[in-house]
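Tutorial, part two.
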Amino acid sequence: MSLEQLIETIRREAEKEIEGIINSAEKEAKEIIKKAKEEGRKEAKKIEAKGEKEAKRAREKIIAAAKREARMEITNAKEEIIQKCMEEIRKKLQEMSGKKYREIVKELIKRAKREMKDFYIVATREEDKKIAEKMGVEVKTMKKGIGGIIAKSKDGSKEMDLTFDSMLERKEEEIRIAIAKRLFEEHDN
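Running the prediction step on this input gives:
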């Protein structure tokens, strides 16, 4: 399984999990906008009573501030949702097991074999050790992680970090953009 396929699998699973989050985010965003508009209107009416000229300037200021605040709250809410999605992706990867996980680790080991001749792996799970041993690959140590492997050449000249943690880190911005597009792009227009 290629990195792109892994990312696609992660993306599909994340989409399933975040469908529930979408409705909540939309409601929260609408509520924030509604609240900000209501506050802006209330303040504007109070100021209009003091005088038309002063009221106009103050109203514009208040509405602009309310809009800025609403935009900031929406931005913060979106960021929080994206963070929750990233955490959910990490959790799903960590919980992945069975045949699906074994197939991914086998593909990662095959990839390492194509790139390096004489290597060993650092496993992140006990299951990795079993898979590697079945494939005739030496496992030297364990490293804490959510899954995947690190392949190291025995002469120390090359290292491939194929852990889920590392792959997520390398693709984080791309994943965050995809989540944002999926959740917010069609709803923002």
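The chain has two domains: 3-95+172-188, 98-166. In part three we will examine how such features are distributed along the chain.
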